[in-house]
Amino acid sequence: MYISMVALNATDSYQQHKDIWSLFPSTPERRRDHLFRVENQSSNERVMVLVQSSTAPSSTEKAQVLQSKPFNPQLSNEEFYKFKLLAYPTKCLSKSKKVIEIHDDNEQVEWLHRKLKGANVNVTSMDSIMVKSQKTFNSRYVCFEGILQITNSEQIYQALVMGVGRQKHAGAGLLSLAKAN
To answer: Alpha carbon of 145 to those of 9, 20, 82, 122: distances in Å?
Structure first.
């Protein structure tokens, strides 16, 4: 895998999605092998994006790779890690099968515990972020930060590689881990 910092000029999540796809010209159509998260947006409309991918990205006129390096996480059971996750917490209404956003803070934390059931999770910070999209509806994402202790490294590795929750195409789901000292 690779972890890369990329600069985009797009502020709309759908355009960001398209511009990030352009970094991987040889990827077969409809096979997404990358996750991304907007890290910051400067006043001049330039957006810095963290991209995790199975192949190395290549700069295009729409997306400039500023830095890229191989990424091979080694996760250990019982170890503590700092984490960051921008996610789109949702639930499915059982009768109608309609998917709705979860707005309650406690329910959002419960959702995170279900998604990261291979770890003991302690959320230390939550921030709600409105993500704009011209193609689809605007969504409210939640940025979770905290400490987790891995109890099943295979499950957490899968969450790291595959992403967490819905809206991965629009910048949600990238789980970042760093060993806690």
So the answer is: 26, 24, 7, 9
Q: What are phi and psi of 176, to 5 degrees?
A: -110, 135
**C-alpha to C-alpha distance for 26 and 116, rounded to whole angstroms:** 32
* Residues linked to residue 4 through DSSP beta bridges, in sequence order: 51, 68
Whether the CA torsion 135, 138, 139, 142 is positive or negative: it is positive
Helix (H) or strand (E) holding 16: helix 13-21
In tens, the pLDDT along 124-175 reads 888 887 776 666 666 788 999 999 999 999 999 999 999 999 988 888 999 9
| In contact, 173 and 142? CB cutoff 8 Å | no
- Predicted TM-score (pTM) of this structure: 0.86
Rounded CA separation 142/11 (Å): 18
Which three-class secondary structure state does DSSP give residue 107?
helix
According to DSSP H, which parts of 22-168 are helical?
105-115, 153-162
Instruction: Compute how many other C-beta atoms are within 10 angstroms of the C-beta atom of residue 48.
Output: 15
Both tokens of residue 157? 């590795």
Grouping H, G, I as helix, E, B as strand and the rest as coil, residue 11 is: coil
Name the nearest CA neighbour of 67 among 120, 128, 2, 21. Answer: 2
